[in-house]
Design goal:
Layout (H helix, E strand, L loop, with lengths): L5 H6 L7 H5 L2 H10 L21 H14 L5 E10 L7 E3 L7 E10 L5 E6 L18 H10 L8 E3 L7 H5 L1
Amino acid sequence: MPYICSNLLWSFKKVPKMYFVSVVSRETFELIFKFLHFIDNEGLPTYQAPPILFKIYSVMCHLNIKFQTLYLPNQNIAIDESLTLWKGHLSIRQYLPLKASKFRIKTFKLWESRTGYLWCFLEYTGKNTVLQSSLITPDTPKTAGVVLELLEPLFGREHTLWIDNFFNSPELARK
């Protein structure tokens, strides 16, 4: 178990333990974690999305679909990037030398402004990030493409979009 040190979860005596530590033994937890898979490895030859996301892409798509069907955002929505701390080895992590923790994973998210509901997200996989929106042309900048990809299901519903300078461009304003 390279990413979760399960021994630490069961070793502390004075620190309050998580609930599952009192219910599941360490050996059982390690067995569940070892055999937990979201996708069959034999499906790799027919897989069409970013190769780095092969193991989790089906879960990401399922979450995006559920987020979008369970709630329709109010008029004010926002798109922003989010950085998640990452200490493991992964090719899509970002190096940020000015931060205390230098490596993070970047995700682009569409939020509903009033409640903070996450309506849609897109994982950044480097310069080869695949954007599949029909609104994107070959000359569309990547940042505008990210906005169009996240916003496409809400086009024509008269929402007010709030974005920062990172995403803003003349090409985006024309669309």
